[in-house]
Specification:
Elements: H1 28-55, H2 93-101, H3 105-111, H4 113-120, H5 133-143, H6 156-164, H7 167-192, H8 194-228, E1 232-237, E2 240-245, E3 254-258, E4 266-278, H9 280-283, E5 288-290, E6 297-298, E7 303-315, H10 321-327, H11 338-370, H12 390-411, H13 415-433, E8 436-438, H14 442-446, E9 452-455, E10 467-473, E11 476-477, H15 488-500, E12 505-507, E13 516-518, H16 521-533, H17 538-543, E14 545-551, E15 559-566, E16 571-579, H18 580-585, E17 587-591, E18 597-599, H19 602-617, E19 620-631, E20 646-655, H20 662-671, E21 675-679, H21 684-693, E22 708-710, H22 711-715, H23 719-725, E23 731-733, H24 737-749, E24 754-758, H25 764-769, E25 772-776, H26 782-787, E26 790-792, H27 797-839, H28 846-865, H29 888-916, H30 920-943, H31 958-976, H32 979-982, H33 989-1000, H34 1002-1011, H35 1021-1026
Helix pairs in contact: 3-4, 6-8, 7-8, 7-12, 8-13, 8-28, 11-12, 11-13, 11-27, 12-28, 13-27, 13-28, 19-21, 27-28, 27-29, 27-30, 28-30, 28-31, 29-30, 29-34, 30-31, 30-33
Length: 1027
């Protein structure tokens, strides 16, 4: 900068704007202070001189009009002074995006570094953004929202087109068009369109209903997909750490990140320790990247694998590479589940049988027609060789082909996959209301087969509401009212131990307001205890120390540590906090109540271990504090924390009560044949006490050494020992994530279907390995959630049991619908085949069969697939991994109903005219009406596969009652008002009564069949492999 000098009045600026001087970045702060000092001194000098002049009586000297000093903003990173100032409104979002994506240090230096960029984005580096509604809207308008554009969902027309692509539907439509053409040619437009037009309308109705159903389920899955991507993020706004939705993150936000978090947007590292990120989702590199001042760039969608830190958000939504990538990916939750795959296999088998029957019917009817063995309504031969009109021949042939193809339509149970989709979608919606979010659809049905649930303790079996109830200083317990009597040096060390070795923060806007603590439940409990009992000022203590290195807590080490140095001192302080017995093993001395340092001999170590054991037996989580001081050597601080020769500061015991209802849930699982195993990081005494409290352990039976083991003991077993003892183990204490994975693998090898709960990043392998991975929605990390199949939103074990009930409900509902539909398939095939072979005509027309198909495929699926779970489900043993879908009792039920339906319909077919004294068309209507009503009554039978009382709980399922009512009303309309469309005749009250009476007989028949004892054994392995 050029020297100051006086100028003429027209020369305003003292600083030459064209000069190209640069400030040295290393001397910036000194020069600022010098400049401020010079400006103040110069001002005071001018003031004193002007006073002297004014005090004189003489004339004033002529002075310049004014002197302007133009001091431009100093750029710490060597930015030229002639650049225009960048503001929140003028900063280029594209430049911010490219800077982080390309990890461009040059672009960062142009902004002046991270701190200067924060000022440009109007972000306070400590307190974050303002967070007001106007501020947030303004930032979203300038930089966009943190949402990506999703690919357009499949439109309804696409579902309609997919439904029309079915081969049998295409053949039916072709036959309908031919029938329409020949009918119009033969009978004219007025009467000729009925046969072909009716089939077309029936096909269109079936296709539209199927497409509407699929479209609605797709919408449901899309909603669940959006919900699963709505993760919680912790940001700093107005000096307060608060959780918000990832979609509400804006540019300028300061985001707090810890192990397992997904980075919600592109940004720059501000401060933190030991922060490492897995960028494999973006770059494909498996190595974890260390984030620090020398590498501050953080990409959206990547995962934090170690440490913690704060990030300044620079780009959101579509301005990030993650947003662009996700916008091109269509998340289709509607994948084929294992049950759907088995049902598709079953559908294929039945379809082949239907195809064979249809081919035989087609062949027999064609032979009978062309040999002159078929007669019309007047008793005349339908085919008289060359005398028969060609159009009449083609019309009959087309009707025969239509009937055969319709048999295929009815025979193929395409409603089975639809039923699975409906019951899964319905159960997913209800499970969301019950605090369980399904991420993988197949887990709904798999959960019904679970035989083992491996559950965490903290937050799942317990409330996760920690509170310090005991404090021990050395070998003496300290009461709440006696902390003031602690020695000054002890109190000071305890305050430092809590304040410096924590990732939690305290927000207290006013001195009189209650402190708001953010962090894990354990951290919050310890900080609350320190603030209220030790009168600790966390922020004041932190300001007096400089952090050198941090060892973040993880589930393997079960401890966290910090290396700090007091400002302007050379003494290095090491503070450790963690599992009491592990911290105790690192100590060689301890303080007593008077603040006297004592050497820890073996006898005293045993006494301290006994204290820990006694605390654990009271279900307390025991946390210990230890520290060590060393002199800084040759001006360099050590890089690692001391792990030996520490001084024990004390123990705190944290109480975490069991959740209400856990005992009942555990007993419910046991009654259902599902074993519960508790896997925890707590010591063996705490684990045993909690397991007893939750009824996982029985005081009289399970207190032997085999029921409770430690992780190290379990992993040191040989494979043979593990496989032998795995079923007896109910509690595993001091377990690592590897131990949990090992247990899951062993249980699966033993043939169990395993469900596992987990919340930490290191739980991801076990969650993936398990048949059903259950992550925690509150305490769970994003890595754990992404590795899981179902997210338990309230972290409650009772919800896990609810998921188990829904899993069994899904499986049972499919079995109900399967029994119902197979009954219709068997009856329809046998009736049409026997009638075709014997008389040359099928009693049920194409339109009537399509109507029956609609009843059982869509309406039947809706009625039976939406039954809610009952307590009866939890009284049965687990279904198992490979048990057949169709049990012996199901075969018994469906065969009894099918035989009954075939019998009465064939009697009506051959003797209906003489029994009722009606003409042929009325007899056909009676057959059609009775057949449909049989299915309506059989829907009630299908509600209970084994129970005799089929009406129990029916009033709770209003949808079932509504569907039955709708089916009856539509059947009434079909018979009484759509005569030409459905080829029916009106029936009188007596005929309706006969149809209803014959159909109602299926109820007592069903009751009698269920009285017949059936072996609880299911079909053999051959049946299992097929069904």
């Amino acid at each position: 900068m050029s020297a100051l000098r006086f100028r003429k009045p027209s020369e305003i600026d003292v600083c030459d704007e064209t000069q190209e001087g640069w400030w040295s970045a290393s001397k910036t702060h000194k020069r600022r202070w010098r400049m401020a000092f010079t400006a103040i001194s110069f001002t005071r000098l001018l003031f004193s001189l002007s006073k002297k002049v004014l005090d004189k009586d003489g004339s004033l000297l002529r002075t310049l009009s004014y002197v302007a000093i133009d001091v431009q903003r100093i750029n710490e990173d060597s930015q030229p002074l002639d650049n225009k100032a960048v503001t929140l409104l003028t900063v280029d979002p594209t430049k911010l995006r490219d800077m982080v994506r390309d990890k461009n240090f040059e672009s960062l230096s142009e902004f002046g570094g991270v701190q200067e960029l924060a000022l440009i984005l109007e972000t306070d580096v400590k307190n974050g953004i303002n967070g007001g509604e106007a501020d947030l809207i303004h930032r979203q308008n300038v930089f966009g929202a943190n949402k990506y554009q999703k690919p357009p969902p499949r439109r309804f027309l696409k579902f309609l087109f997919d439904a029309l692509k079915d081969v049998t539907i295409i053949i039916l439509l072709a036959c309908a068009v031919l029938s329409l053409g020949f009918g119009i040619k033969q009978h004219g437009w007025k009467d000729g369109w009925y046969d072909g037009g009716s089939i077309i309308l029936a096909v269109v109705l079936v296709v539209v209903v199927s497409a509407v159903s699929d479209f609605k389920q797709s919408k449901q899955f899309q909603k669940l997909s959006t919900k699963s991507s709505d993760i919680r993020v912790e940001v700093v706004r107005e000096g307060r750490r608060q959780p918000i939705s990832i979609f509400d993150v804006v540019v300028g936000d300061i985001v707090y990140l810890k192990i397992g978090d997904q980075i919600p947007s592109d940004g720059l590292f501000m401060e933190g320790h030991s922060l490492k990120v897995d960028e494999s989702s973006m770059t494909g590199e498996s190595d974890h990247i260390e984030i620090k001042e020398g590498n501050p760039f953080m990409l959206s969608g990547t995962k934090v694998t170690d440490g913690f830190g704060f990030m300044l958000v620079t780009s959101v939504g579509m301005n990030t590479a993650w947003g662009e990538m996700m916008s091109s990916i269509n998340h289709d939750l509607n994948e084929e589940t294992p049950l759907q795959a088995r049902l598709n296999k079953l559908t294929s088998y039945i379809g082949k049988i239907g195809l064979l029957v249809a081919a035989l019917v087609l062949l027999v009817m064609l032979i009978r027609y062309f040999t002159g063995n078929t007669r019309d309504d007047k008793g005349n031969k339908e085919f008289n060789g060359s005398k028969t009109n060609f159009d009449d021949v083609m019309n009959v042939v087309v009707s025969i082909v239509s009937a055969a193809v319709t048999i295929i339509v009815v025979a193929i149970p395409e409603g089975l996959p639809l039923a699975v989709t409906l019951t899964l979608a319905y159960s997913m919606k209800c499970m969301m209301a019950d605090h369980a979010m399904v991420r993988k659809i197949s887990s709904c049905e798999t959960m019904g087969s679970a035989t083992i649930i491996c559950t965490d303790k903290t937050g799942t079996l317990t409330l996760n509401e920690m509170k310090v109830t005991e404090f021990w200083l050395g070998k003496e317990a300290v009461k709440d009212d006696s902390f003031a009597g602690l020695a000054g040096n002890i109190l000071k060390l305890l305050q430092q131990a809590v304040s410096l070795n924590t990732t939690s923060t305290i927000y207290k806007p006013h001195s009189t307001s209650v402190p708001e603590i953010s962090g894990s439940p354990t951290e919050k409990a310890i900080l609350s205890w320190a603030v209220l009992n030790l009168d600790t000022s966390i922020d004041d203590i932190k300001q007096n120390y400089h952090t050198i290195h941090v060892e973040a807590f993880n589930s393997e080490k079960k401890r966290s540590g910090v290396l700090v140095k007091r400002n302007n001192e050379k003494i290095i302080h090491t503070h450790w906090k963690g599992a009491a017995e592990m911290i105790l093993a690192m100590c060689s001395s301890y303080y007593d109540r008077e603040g006297v340092l004592k050497v820890m001999d073996e006898e005293e170590r045993l006494q301290l271990e006994t204290i820990i054991k006694n605390m654990a037996q009271k279900s307390l989580r025991c946390i210990a504090f230890a520290y060590k001081e060393v002199e800084e050597e040759s001006g360099q601080a050590p890089e690692k924390l001391e792990e030996n020769g520490l001084t024990l500061l004390g123990f705190v015991g944290l109480k975490d009560p069991c959740r209400p209802g856990v005992n009942a849930a555990v007993e419910s699982c046991r009654a259902a044949g599902v074993n519960i195993k508790m896997i925890t990081g707590d010591n063996v005494h705490t684990a045993r006490a909690i397991a007893l409290e939750c009824k996982i352990l029985n005081r009289d039976e399970d207190l032997d050494n085999e029921a409770v083991v430690e992780g190290v003991q379990f992993r040191n077993y040989s494979l043979e020992e593990r496989m032998e003892k795995i079923d007896k183990i109910l509690v595993m204490a001091r377990s690592s994530p590897f131990d949990k994975l090992l247990m899951v693998q062993c249980l699966k090898q033993k043939g169990h279907v395993v469900a596992v709960t987990g919340d930490g990043t290191n739980d991801a392998p076990a969650l993936k390995e398990a048949d059903i991975g259950l992550s925690m929605g509150i305490q769970g990390t994003e890595v754990a959630k992404e590795s899981s199949d179902i997210v338990i939103l309230d972290d409650n074990f009772t919800t896990v049991v609810t998921v188990l009930r829904w899993g069994r409900c899904v499986y049972t509902n499919i079995q109900k619908f399967l029994q119902f539909q197979l009954t219709v398939n068997v009856a329809a095939l046998v009736i049409n085949f026997v009638a075709a072979v014997s008389s040359g005509k099928v009693p049920l027309t194409a339109v009537q069969l399509l109507w029956v198909n609609l009843i059982m495929d869509t309406l039947g699926a809706l009625a039976l697939a939406t039954e809610k779970p009952t307590n009866d489900l939890m009284a049965k043993p687990p279904i198992g991994r490979s048990k057949p879908l169709i049990t012996r009792i199901m075969w018994q039920n469906l065969m009894a109903q099918a035989v009954y339906q075939v019998t009465i319909l064939l009697v009506l077919q051959f003797k209906g005219n003489s029994i009722f004294g009606v003409k042929e068309s009325v007899k056909s209507t009676l057959i059609f009406n009775t057949f449909v009503l049989c299915q309506v009554f059989n829907e009630f039978n299908a509600r209970k596969l084994e129970k005799k009382n089929i009406f129990k709980g029916i009033l709770k399922n209003k949808l079932f009652i509504a569907i039955v009512g709708i089916t009856i009303v539509l059947q009434l309309v079909m018979v009484e008002f759509l005569k030409r469309f459905a080829n029916t005749e009106r029936l009188d009250w007596g005929q309706w009564g006969a149809c209803i009476g014959l159909a109602a007989l299926s109820w007592p028949i069903g009751w009698l069949v269920k009285c017949i004892p059936v072996s609880s054994k299911l079909l053999g392995n051959q049946g299992a492999s097929v069904f």
